[in-house]
Amino acid sequence: MNISESHYKELVIAKSLLENPGLAVKISHFIGTPIEKGLALLPANWNKNIAKVTEKSLMKASEAAIFTMKDIPGEASSNRWHKLGAAVSGGVGGFFGLTAIAVELPVSTTIMLRSIADIARSEGELITSLDTKMACLEVFALGGTSDLDDSSESGYFAVRAALAKSVSEAAEFMLTKGITDEAAPLLVKLISNIAEKFGVQVTQKAAAQALPAIGAAGGAIINTVFIDHFQDMARGHFIVRKLERLYGYDTVRTAYNLLPNNTH
């Protein structure tokens, strides 16, 4: 099935959002210094701790963020308000330094998940649908560097394929049993898979915040870049999903993979 010209243009936009500069590049550009310097300043046990913090943040966000939103598919998303909220929480995190990340990250993750759901809704998704909720969580796994980016399969579809089994298991269980304690292990498994990818990007954010003289203003800017990055991932992801509803998964994936990687 041929994709219409206007939808093809949307797919080009989606790929340019999903496959272009990662978060580390964007943050380095904004602060004018490579974040590698900040990575060296992170505490020795950072990786072990951040895994717990990212998982907890995603779990808290998934419980709170989407369930209070009204179902109005196609309503324009309010990206600015969400950016402002993330900037404020990032400013607090920047002011108190790395010690605040365990407090700040659940707040900014919840704001980001609401923003992601808002974008999903603007692309015609039903927020009350379990499939949409799972797709919103998937966004946190997108947009990092991938070892698979050089293969014929894009980084974006490779990540979705890697998550597909845990997404369908969690969704299937929750459809029959609802969100109960019994469903928790499957949801935890999914969130833990997503947290692995998300943790890499949280580490990049923390590395930038660890640089001397970043302070509260820098923390706010870094968090704005952080949410902006995931808003881009969400926009690309939900454009692709919208086209998949129209043309089917295989048609869209084939057309997407045939597009050049640098689609700016």
TrEMBL record:
<protein>
    <recommendedName>
        <fullName>Peptidase</fullName>
    </recommendedName>
</protein>
<dbReference type="Pfam" id="PF12787">
    <property type="entry name" value="EcsC"/>
</dbReference>
<dbReference type="InterPro" id="IPR024787">
    <property type="entry name" value="EcsC"/>
</dbReference>
